[in-house]
Every structure is written in structure tokens, then in C-alpha cells.
Amino acid sequence: MSRKEISAGILPFRRHEGLEVLLAHPGGPFWKNKDAGVWTIPKGLVDPGEELLAAALREFTEETGFVAREPFVPLAPVRHKSGKIVHAFACEGEFDPEKLTCNTFEIEWPPKSGKRQSFPEIDRVKWFGLDAAREKILGYQLPWLDELERISRKSKGGQSEACPPSCAVAGMSLRSFARPTICRVHSKDR
How high is the pLDDT of residue 97? Predict the structure, then answer.
């Protein structure tokens, strides 16, 4: 599989009255009136030779204008129906949806009109509790919400599921990481 078929993104979360995740609504006329099951994490294609986390951070900033900070917890990759493998990294943070700045894309619109228009890749971001997020997020990304919830529960008890229990990283809480939580051994599997 070529690197063109691999994407990576960031799943920001915060703890308010419960666990919340920041999701992005795709921009453009096709998505304008769609809501349930179309929200996503900010993500994009991994360039040849680029590390997964570096690509995820680059795409997150390009699509939102926000800068994610460590620690990063790698989530299990998922497969898009096209066959593309998508990697995600969770990180705790506070991002103001009102401060969204996004790159744009250009398409012919309306179709067959000969006119080109620019649209934001993401037209809005919003914080959702996990139940609401499960209704909003693309179906193939649902496993990330379940995994984040499991990790969050375990982190309250001082454990992280980022690596297998035999790994030195595994005994730390989410807040205790000074560097990204991908150990060199298990990062190759992600």
C-alpha cells in the first residue's frame, strides 16, 4: 500500500462535565445541509517519508488553525471504505471553535456552470459529549470514540492503553507523558 492511501489526524478531547471531543464538519456545498454521520476528526494524507504524528499535526493546524500539544495517544488505525488506512492521535486540549481558521479548496460550482468557487475544507468545529459525537461522526471513525473512552477510564486509575501492558509506557497516566506516547517498538504497528 502506498503512502497516498494513508491519512492521519488529531482527535482533541477535554474533560468538562464529562469527556468531550472536538469534531469538524466538512465544508463545501455537498456537505452544507448534512449533519448526522458526516463530522470527522481533522485529518489528511500523509506525505511520502512523513511520520504519522507529524502529518496528523500538520493537517490539524492546516484545517483548524489550532496547534495540538503533547501528550499524544495513538489510537488503533481504521480502514475507510475506499481501503485507505486512517491513523488518529488523541490529545487533551482546549480549542475555541469561534477561532477556527481553515484552508480552502476550489471546485466548479454549480456543476457544469464553468464557474469556480472556493470553499473551506472545514466550515465549523464543535465540542460534543461522547453520546452526541457517536451520532455525528463518520461511521468508520466510531471505534476511536470507544477507544478514547476506554483510555480515559483507565487513565483515571493510572493506566494507559497506548501500548501493551508489557511496555514501559503502559503504566503511565495520560497526563504524565512528557513526550508523545508512541514508544519506538509499538509505533511501527500503528
Answer: 95
